[in-house]
Amino acid sequence: MTIVLATSATPNTAEGTQALPDDTVGGRLTCVSGQVVWVTERTSAGTTTVRIESYIARQVKHDWSTTTIRSGLTTAAWQVTTTGAIDRSVTRAYCGP
Fold first, then answer.
1. HEC states along the chain?
2. Could you give the maximum distance between any two Cα atoms of the chain, in Å?
3. Distance in angstroms (rounded) separating the CA atoms of residues 78 and 97
4. What is the pLDDT along the chain (97 residues), one digit of tens a residue?
C-alpha cells in the first residue's frame, strides 16, 4: 500500500463539535477502476488513530488539525478514532486518483 500523508493545523472552525471519549467514525468504500480510497480526518487535541484495512496511523495532536491519507486500494474499510473530537463535516473517505 502506498501512503501519502498530508497534515495541516488550523484553528477550530467546527461549530457545535463536542469532545467525547473515543469518538469514532468509519465505513467501507469501493471505488471505480482507476480510483483509490482516500481518507481525510479533522480531529481536535488528543490521540487520533486512522485505520485503513491493516494500515494504522496514530498521531498525538495538541490542537485541531487535518490529515489526508491515500490508501492505494480500490476497496477499503476505514475508521477514525480519537480521544478528542471528530469534525464530521470534514472527516470522510472518498474516491480519487
1. CCCEEEEEECCCCCCCCCCCCCEEEEEEEECCCCCEEEEEEEECCEEEEEEECCEEEEEEECCCEEEEEECCCCEEEEEEEECCCECCCCCEEEEEC
2. 38
3. 18
4. 444 444 444 444 444 555 446 899 999 999 999 999 999 999 999 999 999 999 999 999 999 999 999 999 999 999 999 999 999 999 999 999 9
Beta bridge partners of 81: 24, 49
Say how far apart CA 91 and CA 55 lie, in whole Å: 17
